[in-house]
Every structure is written in structure tokens, then in C-alpha cells.
Task: structure prediction
Amino acid sequence: MKKLILFASCVALLGAGCVFERATSSPSISAPITEQTTEAPIAQRNGFGDIPPSPIPPRKPGVQGSVRLHAEFPSLPPNSTVLRIRSGQPSAPELQNIAQALQLPQGTIGRNPVTQELLLSWKDDEGRVWTYNGDEGLIHLSNSVIRNADMGGVLFHDDVLKDHAIGFLRSIGAELTRIGNPYIDEGASDSKIAVIRFNAKQDGQGIWSENGSARIGATIEIQRMGGRILEGSLMIRQDPDRSDYPTRPQETVQKQLAQGGLTGTPNGDVVIDEISFEWLQVTNHAELNTTFLYPAIIGNGIITYPDKRTAPYRIVVSLVE
Result:
């Protein structure tokens, strides 16, 4: 079955599949999982077999920046916890249940179907249109009724708009422990509309790309005049499987940090004044329905470019190979 696209007529049958999962508590990101349990029987050590290799820093011929560490480098344990997260695509049993609920012919599903695509789209009783993309694990809202209406109202302060965004996410049942504090994306906002973003979190720590950019957990587009929600998106993540893997030697991690981490040598002089344990998201190219979160060292500081401009700078170093 190459593609499964389900629209509003089947949404009522699948309401349970769109519930926002409750986050699982875990120890410090750099600590081994010890007695953590999971739904599936995953071995405590090296339970996922060979995992995707950590990204390789790019080569930058001619770039001669530097990194100075003005923060205490933490001690690293011998093992660190790796998380494996399944995408929002239905598993074979879930797909079979969907097919049965829709009374699809049994022969069209087979014994062990692999979902290629799942797309849900529906309109709620307020006229808002929602979509869910299982491959991306993303639920999206479009409120064309309000966008196309000429509505006035009071001009809201930024803090009030952020409170409105939080209240909206809470009202639809979003798991707020999986997102960080709201902030206004000034580059995407204008005088009429504020774009409010929430960075993604797992177990209380941020999730980063190898280039140092934050993974976005939710975005709310809201009118500054009246505070009405126009659009929104929310990343839906399944509860992760967990297993410990050997931590890279401390001197190796420190050396890569001093060389600029996964983004390579910086084009300027960087001073790192804060170090934290967070997550690095790694794509599993061998199995596209899963992603991994690797424990990582995140170094935050300031870069001074050759023309003396300064800017915030972030270095990401994976703790596992």
C-alpha cells in the first residue's frame, strides 16, 4: 500500500491517535539509565545495535578562527543514554486497526504493512482546519475564518500575546513539558502579526541540530490587535526508547569543542562561557521512521568576527560516536 491519506470523515475513528503523549522523566542527560523501563524490551546497554554515526564536522580550508573555554568543563560518565523516537506513522498493528475501522478490504493491507504516508485533515466546530502529517509528526492549524475577517480589538503587549499562546496550547491538550518558554520571532513577525515559537525539549533539555539551531516544538501566529490565533503548529513526538552507549573519551570531546564542534572551525574568535548537557537530533537514514537523540555538550558564548562585529554563538558536540 503506497499511500494512505485519510480525511475528515475518519478523524472521529482516530481521535486516540492524536493524543499528546506525556513526557517520561529521566535522569541527567549524561547519566546512564540504570533501572529505566520502556514499553519494548530494549537492552540497557547498546540496545539499538549499531546506531547512526554522529555527524562529521565540515572541513573549512583557510578558516582560522579560535575557541576559548571560560567555563568549567564537566566530568563525563563512561556511558550516556541514547534515545530512539519513532515517527508519527502508524505501526503495522495500528494501520491494520485503522483499516478495520474503515472497513477496508483485508487483502489491501496484508500481514505486515508499512505505512508510507499518513495525512489527516478535519474542521472543528469553530471552523478551524487542522491537519496531521504522520511522517513529520506535525499537527497544523489554519484559522481562515478569523484571518479573512476584519476584526479590531486592543493592541496586546508581547508578554500578553505569549500568555495567549501558552493558554491556547494548554486548551488543546498539548504537553507543555515538551516545549520551552515562548519567544517572539522578530524576523517572521510584523506590526500586525506576532509569530511566537517554543523550542522543543525532551526530559527538560533542549534539542539541537548539528548547526546549533534549535528544533522548534511549537509555533503560534497571533494577531497583535485582539490576540486572536491565526495559525499554529505543534510537533508530536512518541515516547522514546532508551539505551546506554559508551561515552566518547573526555579529551576527544574537549578537543572537538575547541575545534568548533559539529559546525567546524568558526570564522572568528569564540569565547564559551556556558556549558550544558542537551540533545542532538540525528536522522536515521537506514530507517526513516525513526530518529535518535544523542546526548551532547552545548557550548554557548560570543563570537567576534574579523570586522569586530559580535554575535551569540553555539557549539554542539556529540557525546557518543
